[in-house]
């Protein structure tokens, strides 16, 4: 009987392809394009389409043609016929051709007693157009070893929304928090062409690269999508998130203040203020800095609080108060930035006069891992903050404690 045979290598690829199938999507279909040599299986829509290519054997007895099957039904057939213990064995799906119909159908048992049938329909035109694009588009052929160097470079500079390799300038640029940040190329990475990808496309390229047995991969990009292939599999990703990238410029900052503070005091107070409804509604945190103290406050007329942050380092400075958007500050996941007990924080002033509060991880002391942009000097708040500082000092003095002042520096050579 006619059949499709999936060897263990293709079974994993098929599982990845079927992950995208939503069981409630009645319109989703998987196309099968069969010629004398291959059977191409295509799934997806828009800029997220995948192709798997199977080498056709004569013993499969498949007729040439183009047709499609219900995606959700095929996924049920695939998942329920296969046992986990059989992943190292070939897997067959039997097809049948009615005598008067050119299109085949699947009619099979799963679990030995449950019948699933799927009648084929015409192939999806979007799938045929995508297949034509992959066969005709001009692609870069790159060794898998070189691709791994590209992926390693990208992972070194996470997080990012855009990752660019500029061949002419011999540098890497990433977009993070709507800013373009340049880096030198690793000495081991010699670019063969310019490349611009977003986070999703880098992840797809990495997944393909580290699961293939091919020595080379092909890369195609245009303004809308990226397409990667190892010869047997094709994966695509949308690049529409990069449509404004070309209009963005690198921004330089000067450092207004450098701090190294203990993470637990920062996280605790942000959480406290967010749990006070009136303070949360005001959505304002105040950061006070002088030569010996760093204090975080959430102050309203009715309720509020303030606390000295345990600081390992404070740059010499005149007393200053900064107003920070409390919601934006709360979104900084300090534990994602660093696993250490202290974190480097810098107040940065851009060329356009706008400030940001940068949080740095252990690997990159030059560019912030995360930033808060809704921050500004608030000299009009100084009197109110000094009054709160005085009240806190009085309370702590009565308890026999002083403010948590600067301690010894540990592990921050650039301070």
Overview of this protein structure:
The structure is a single chain. The chain is of the alpha+beta class. The chain contains ten helices and 27 strands. It has helices at 8-19, 71-81, 125-136, 144-156, 199-209, 263-274, 277-282, 326-330, 334-337, 382-398, and strands at residues 3-6, 29-34, 38-45, 48-55, 65-70, 91-97, 104-110, 114-119, 121-122, 140-143, 162-166, 171-176, 179-184, 195-198, 216-221, 225-229, 233-238, 253-262, 284-289, 294-299, 304-308, 311-314, 320-325, 342-350, 355-360, 370-372, 375-377. Strands 9-5-2-3-4-17-16-15-10 form a nine-stranded antiparallel beta sheet, with helices on both faces. Strands 22-18-24-25-26 form a five-stranded antiparallel beta sheet. The chain has a five-stranded antiparallel beta sheet with strand order 21-20-19-23-27, with helices on both faces. A hairpin with a 4-residue loop joins β19 (284-289) and β20 (294-299). The longest helix has 17 residues, at 382-398. The chain is elongated.
Helix percentage: 10-25%
The order of strands across the largest sheet is 9-5-2-3-4-17-16-15-10
Tell me what portion of residues adopts beta-strand conformation: 35-45%
C-alpha-based Rg, rounded? 29 Å
Kindly state the mean pLDDT as a whole number? 89
Biggest beta-sheet profile:
9 strands, antiparallel
Number of helices: 10
Low-confidence stretches: 405-411
**Morphology call:** elongated
CA(first)-CA(last) distance: 74 Å
Structural class: alpha+beta
Number of strands: 27
């Amino acid at each position: 009987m006619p059949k499709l045979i999936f060897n263990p290598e293709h079974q994993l690829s098929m599982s990845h392809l079927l992950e995208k199938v939503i069981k409630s999507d009645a319109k989703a279909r998987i196309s099968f394009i069969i010629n004398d040599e291959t059977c191409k299986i295509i799934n997806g829509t828009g800029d997220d389409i995948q192709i798997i290519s199977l080498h056709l054997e004569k013993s499969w007895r498949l007729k040439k043609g183009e047709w499609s099957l219900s995606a959700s039904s095929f996924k049920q057939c695939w998942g329920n016929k296969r046992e986990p213990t059989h992943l190292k064995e070939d897997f067959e799906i039997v097809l049948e051709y009615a005598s008067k119909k050119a299109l085949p159908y699947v009619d099979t048992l799963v679990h030995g007693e449950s019948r699933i049938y799927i009648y084929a329909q015409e192939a999806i035109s979007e799938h045929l157009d995508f297949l034509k694009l992959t066969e005709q588009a001009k692609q870069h052929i790159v060794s898998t070893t070189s691709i791994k160097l590209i992926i390693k470079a990208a992972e070194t500079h996470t997080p990012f929304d855009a990752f660019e390799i500029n061949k002419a300038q011999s540098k890497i640029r990433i977009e993070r928090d709507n800013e373009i940040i340049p880096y030198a190329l690793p000495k081991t990475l010699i670019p063969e062409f310019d490349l611009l990808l977003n986070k999703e496309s880098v992840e797809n390229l990495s997944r393909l690269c580290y699961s293939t047995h091919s020595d080379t991969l092909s890369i195609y990009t245009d303004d809308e999508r990226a397409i990667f292939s190892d010869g047997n599999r094709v994966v695509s990703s949308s690049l529409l998130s990069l449509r404004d990238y070309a209009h963005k410029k690198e921004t330089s900052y000067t450092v207004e203040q450098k701090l190294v503070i203990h993470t637990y005091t920062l996280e605790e107070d942000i959480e406290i203020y967010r749990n006070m409804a009136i303070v949360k509604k005001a959505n304002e945190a105040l950061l006070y800095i002088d030569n010996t103290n760093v204090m975080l406050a959430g102050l309203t007329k009715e309720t509020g609080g303030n606390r000295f942050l345990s600081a390992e380092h404070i740059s010499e400075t005149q007393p200053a108060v900064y107003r920070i958007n409390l919601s934006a500050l709360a979104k900084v996941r300090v534990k994602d930035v660093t696993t250490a007990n202290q974190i480097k924080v810098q107040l940065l002033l851009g060329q356009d006069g706008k400030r940001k509060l940068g949080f740095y991880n252990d690997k990159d002391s030059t560019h912030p891992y995360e930033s808060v942009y809704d921050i500004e000097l608030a000299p009009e708040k100084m009197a109110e903050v000094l009054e709160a500082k005085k009240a806190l000092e009085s309370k702590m003095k009565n308890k026999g404690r002083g403010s948590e002042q600067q301690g010894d520096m540990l592990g921050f050579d650039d301070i």
